[in-house]
């Protein structure tokens, strides 16, 4: 009986071992398949998050008042950048259309041609000079840009050496009609940009969008797949959409893509033709509001810590769980350049 009992135990152990081996094999196969699916969900596959020159730094969001006096607006923006740097900021963001009234009849009047030299573009000349003098990286909000016979809403990014790193022309134009609330058609004067913009800076890889661009999650997903640490959206939401959707959209873009989102609005002028909502904000990779303000002029200082991106992506490994067998995001430009 003891001998028989021993044989049974050995047989049970063999069966348990085989079950264990089968489970390990199935788990490996499952992980391989899931990994394959996740990789297929981005075409071409996502780039790894690059190593940033810094992991922690202070960002400043300069919520500025805008007037019809361009010289005053340029001097005011310069002073705000200087104050932000005095407060420890290594990276400064300005609002959308900070050197001109936000109006279709103003865009052609205030438009600047950066390719025609500093005299033809005093706003970008100031940004370049102050970036170089203060050794600070600047996302220059947006200004009306003239290029040939076309006008764009354009964000110019300057490195701390004062050199132009990138420019983003607003990809999605603000054409909306909410009867009794607000109607605005940027396409009456502006032309849509044709390129997503991602740029490597002294404070990491940055994606750029302008205001209405934030509504299109595909652009944010594309930036995340290109390895962005942070996406900056200079923007001027209005008194209709702002209260409902401004913070919501920022937090959604940040948490869905597990990265930082920074927005910078003009300050509110209740007497302006277009009244901005304000509430410039920094959002972390877990969707948490890290710094914000109300509608008055303000310089908001927040701290960015890129180690939190890795932490949140470990907590919630979304990029490893995507189903490329069911859906895909195609980065057309990257695919065409392969």
From TrEMBL:
Any single Gene Ontology cellular-component annotation: mitochondrion
Pfam families: CN_hydrolase
Molecular function in Gene Ontology: omega-amidase activity
Keywords, comma-separated and alphabetical: Hydrolase
Top-rank taxon: Eukaryota
SUPFAM superfamilies according to UniProt: Carbon-nitrogen hydrolase
Xref: InterPro entries: C-N_Hydrolase, C-N_Hydrolase_sf, Nit1/2_C-N_Hydrolase
Domain CN hydrolase, first and last residues per copy: 57-306
GO biological process: asparagine metabolic process; glutamine metabolic process; oxaloacetate metabolic process
Membrane recorded as keyword: no
Annotated Gene3D superfamilies: Carbon-nitrogen hydrolase
Name of protein: CN hydrolase domain-containing protein
Source organism per UniProt: Papaver somniferum
């Amino acid at each position: 009986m003891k001998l028989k009992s021993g044989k049974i135990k050995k047989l049970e152990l063999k069966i348990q071992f085989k079950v264990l081996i089968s489970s390990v094999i199935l788990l490996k196969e499952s992980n391989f398949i899931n990994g394959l699916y996740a990789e297929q969900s981005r075409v071409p596959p996502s780039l790894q998050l690059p190593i940033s020159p810094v992991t922690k730094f202070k960002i400043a969001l300069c919520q500025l008042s805008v007037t019809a006096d361009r010289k005053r607006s340029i001097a005011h923006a310069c002073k705000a950048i200087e104050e932000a740097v005095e407060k420890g900021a290594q990276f400064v963001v300005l609002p959308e259309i900070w050197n001109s009234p936000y109006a279709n009849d103003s865009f052609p009047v205030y438009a600047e041609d950066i390719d025609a030299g500093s005299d033809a573009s005093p706003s970008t000349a100031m940004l370049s000079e102050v970036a170089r003098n203060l050794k600070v990286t600047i996302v220059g909000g947006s200004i009306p840009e003239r290029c040939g016979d076309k006008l764009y809403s354009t964000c110019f990014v300057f490195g701390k050496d004062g050199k132009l790193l990138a420019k983003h022309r607003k990809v999605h134009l603000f054409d909306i009609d909410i009867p009794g609330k607000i109607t605005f058609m940027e396409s009456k004067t502006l032309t849509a940009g044709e390129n997503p913009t991602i740029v490597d800076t002294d404070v990491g890889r940055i994606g750029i969008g302008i205001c209405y661009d934030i509504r299109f999650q595909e652009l944010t997903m594309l930036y995340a797949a290109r390895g962005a640490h942070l996406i900056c959206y200079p923007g001027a939401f209005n008194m209709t959409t702002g209260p409902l959707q401004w913070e919501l959209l920022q937090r959604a873009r940040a948490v869905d893509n597990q990265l930082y989102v920074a927005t910078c609005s003009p300050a509110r002028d209740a007497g302006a033709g277009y009244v901005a909502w304000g509430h410039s904000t920094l959002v972390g990779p877990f969707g948490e509001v890290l710094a914000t303000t109300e509608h008055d002029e303000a310089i908001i200082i927040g701290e960015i810590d890129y180690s939190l991106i890795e932490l949140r992506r470990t907590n919630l490994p979304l990029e490893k769980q995507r189903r490329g067998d069911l859906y895909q995001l195609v980065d057309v430009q990257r695919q065409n350049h392969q």
